[in-house]
Amino acid sequence: MAIHSPELMQQSAINEQPGSDDDHGASVSAIRWTPATRISFRFCFAYLLLFSLSNQIVQLLIIDLIPKVRIPKLDRLWPMRQITSWTADHLFHVAVPLHPTGSGDTAFDWVETFCVLVAAIVATAVWTFLDRRRNNYIKLHKWFRVFLRFALASQMLVYGFMKVFALQMSSPDLLKLVELYGNFSPMAVLWTSIGVAPAYRFFAGSAELLGGLLLLLPVTSMLGALVCAADMAMVFVLNMSYDVPVKILSFHLLLIALFLLAPDVRRLIDFFFTNRATAARGGPQLFQGMRANRLALACQLLLGAYLAGFTLQKDIQYWYEWGGGSPKPALYGIWEVKEMAIDGQVRPSLLTDAQRWRRVIFESFGDIEIQGMDESVLYFKSFQQASMLNLDDKGPFPIVGYPGHPGLSGKFAIDRLAPDELTLDGTMGGHNIHTELRRVDLRQFTLVSRGFHWISEYPFQR
């Protein structure tokens, strides 16, 4: 994806040469890139632009810059959606329904990326044939770099602030504390391991923020691209290693960072490896006149400040709404079942271990998780005020199962006997149920209580 060439580096010398604006424009247009460089740029431009339009990159950038404007991704529109579906059906012989799943690596996404690649190759061939006499694309390259800088910065700021505010990879939820480790998915292992190490999560998020902020300034954009390349290389490896479904996006964010670094490859090699003197590179001037360039720089600074400020404000809002700053339900905690009677029988022989409760978990408003004796988990919604901050209304409260068992529902009344004791009485699945529950002290879990130790006489690995 690199477009490094000696001819492109001559641009810095032109920026520093005295002369009129006409002389400057004539000098730039006279520079001749090699055929390989011109073809590489055409492909990079077509591919990265199409991918950014079809993925969340442009959509997120527009939302961050203009909050009330909502634009669909290219893959939702004609003809991209139809082309992707046709390619999947006739070339790969798979069905690829387009539906929101929270995954960025659906079958539709993979086929769409293939279509974008083919479209970029075709566009490059047509562009090369129609524009084969052009010497270079210096001006287009400058403006395309500005677009990619802000597009990549937007992604880095979003993911960076999400980690800093623990909106991503937060502390393990209550259910994870009582689930068998062997039942964890590889992604859950990664999320949990980083969630119990908030200092590392903060460091990783700060590194992403640093890369994004440095990209916003033209003078620091090369360092920002270096930081982003290092960040995204690590993220991509983690996604590949732990089966995190953001493989496609993280790989392409790495490609964008490498594209931004391409003009400086020779200078970086000289600085780090050959011990040669590294010449200064003139700033990528967008216009010929000095006044216009100063205005363009001011616009980039204002745009970058707004982008960073808006992203920060949005994530602070999320932190208070559903992150660590949000209020917890009155019943928050893991509740062990001390006694359970079904249809008046304390030990009903006809029920399976999955039907007999072991724990009831209240973690967020309106969500209830019931763990069976066989370690399986049923997910329910509601309890309404029972999971809110006050318990004046004791019910009965309806609960509805989701998503794999929506037909399982019931109603329960709640009686808070003590701060850490309660009873639930009601019906579910055609059975009358009475349960007595006791809240678990979360400090009994090593993940919660162990913490950090400067001094460890012996390794504590359990």
Q: What would your notes on this structure say?
A:
The chain is of the alpha+beta class and about 450 residues long. About 50% of the residues lie in helices and about 15% in strands. The chain is built from 15 helices and eight strands. Strands 1-2-3-4-5-6-7-8 form an eight-stranded antiparallel barrel. Helix 7 packs across helix 12 and helix 11 packs antiparallel against helix 12. It is elongated and about 90 Å long. It starts with 5 loop residues before the first helix and ends in a 13-residue tail after the last helix.
The helix count comes to 15
Q: Helix and strand string, N-terminal first?
A: HHHHHHHHHHHHHHEEEEEEEEH
Low-confidence stretches: 2-22, 385-389
Strand order of the main beta sheet, please?
1-2-3-4-5-6-7-8
Question: What fraction, in percent, of the residue positions are helical?
Answer: 40-55%
Residue share in β-strands: 5-15%
Radius of gyration: 28 Å
Q: Indicate the structural class.
A: alpha+beta
Query: What's the overall geometry?
Result: elongated
Largest sheet: 8 strands, antiparallel, barrel
Mean pLDDT: 86
Alpha-carbon distance between the termini? Answer: 46 Å
In total, the number of strands is 8
Topology, element by element:
Blueprint: H1 6-16, H2 21-30, H3 35-54, H4 56-65, H5 80-90, H6 107-130, H7 138-164, H8 174-178, H9 186-195, H10 198-215, H11 221-241, H12 247-261, H13 265-274, H14 290-321, E1 333-342, E2 357-362, E3 367-372, E4 377-382, E5 397-402, E6 409-418, E7 421-428, E8 431-439, H15 446-449
Antiparallel strand pairs: 1-2, 1-8, 2-3, 3-4, 4-5, 5-6, 6-7, 7-8
